Amino acid sequence: MSPSPLASTDQALVQLADLASGLWFISESDHALRVVRLGVVTEAELPSAICAQLSRVDAPVQCVALATFFERATRSQPYHTAADRAVAERYRKLVGFLSHELATARVYRIGEIEVDVYALGRSLQGEWLGVATKLIET
After folding, report:
1. 3-state secondary structure of 9
2. Side by side, which strands form the sheet with 34-39?
């Protein structure tokens, strides 16, 4: 069961912008995180709404757990520099916000090779919002 949402849409958007500012998701081609707002749709409609926004109607959609998707970005390694550890901590704060301040947080992966990723949760007003990026996986 998901925790109760604590953040209003406006509060969440401001906080997400602050948490995601300057973060890049590492894949074969690094892309910045950006804040997204999809509005009010049902959970069942959410994958279709994302694909429609991307104009990728026939793309395969995979839903994964938030912690699973961000595991590599949030884990500190013994060889990390102080800067690397700071980035991992920023990702941990972002994941914490998504999972504790927004309801029903999850990650949608759309496509193959060029994968659009949306980490979303629902605000108090029922709007889906979060962060998005692109991965290149060959």
Report:
1. helix
2. 34-39, 128-136, 114-122, 103-110, 61-64
Helix residue ranges per DSSP H, 21-132 = 46-54, 66-74, 82-101
Q: What is the pTM of this model?
A: 0.92
Q: Determine the average pLDDT of the residues in 66-81.
A: 93
- What domains lie within the chain, and their CATH numbers? 9-136 (3.40.1460.10)
Q: 12-44 as b/e, with b when 16 or more CB fall inside 10 Å?
A: bbebbeebbeebebeeeeebebebbebeebeee
Q: Which of the four pLDDT bands, split at 50, 70 and 90, describes residue 71?
A: very high
d(Cα 22, Cα 33) in Å, to the nearest integer? 8
Question: Percentage of the chain surpassing pLDDT 90?
Answer: 84
How many Å is the Cα radius of gyration of the chain? 15
